[in-house]
Predict the 3D structure of the following.
Amino acid sequence: MADFSLIAVVGMHRSGTSMMAETTSRLGLPLGEKLLPANTYNKRGYFEDTFVVDRHDRLLAQLGRSWGTIQHSFMLPDNWINHEATQAAKQDLKDYIRQQIKTPAHGGKFGIKDPRTSLFIPLWQSICKELDIDFKLIICLRDIEDVAQSLSARDKLPLHAARLIWMNYNA
């Protein structure tokens, strides 16, 4: 099935991933039917598929790394890729991508954008390998201090916590 590509826009929150996803969408990359809505912090929208975001959030919680906790700044646990929760998430995400593959309007490509994907690249690589599809990344990188300031303003995170999360996402 190498004639299908999954293109993931990755990078730390507040690093330009929404802008990049919007650009790829305007160039014709399908990003899903139900996207997170725009709000005060991202007036043009996030361009994040709600299914992918929800599944990532649930997996992070199951691995003890929920957003808004100090544990979110820690690397994923050892052997997380083989964890029962990861395997369940993998099946859900694989089924979701299978649906996208079957959608003729996608023209052989589909995109996902969720900053959390940065933490789960090995999982997505495994999914794509099993589905025999190409996996491509668009990596967005923004200065650590700019991101920390933005996260501090948006989420009221202490600057040191925002910096730790930036390092985790970019590792």
User: Anything to note?
Assistant: Helices lie at 17-26, 50-62, 84-101, 121-131, 144-155, 159-170.
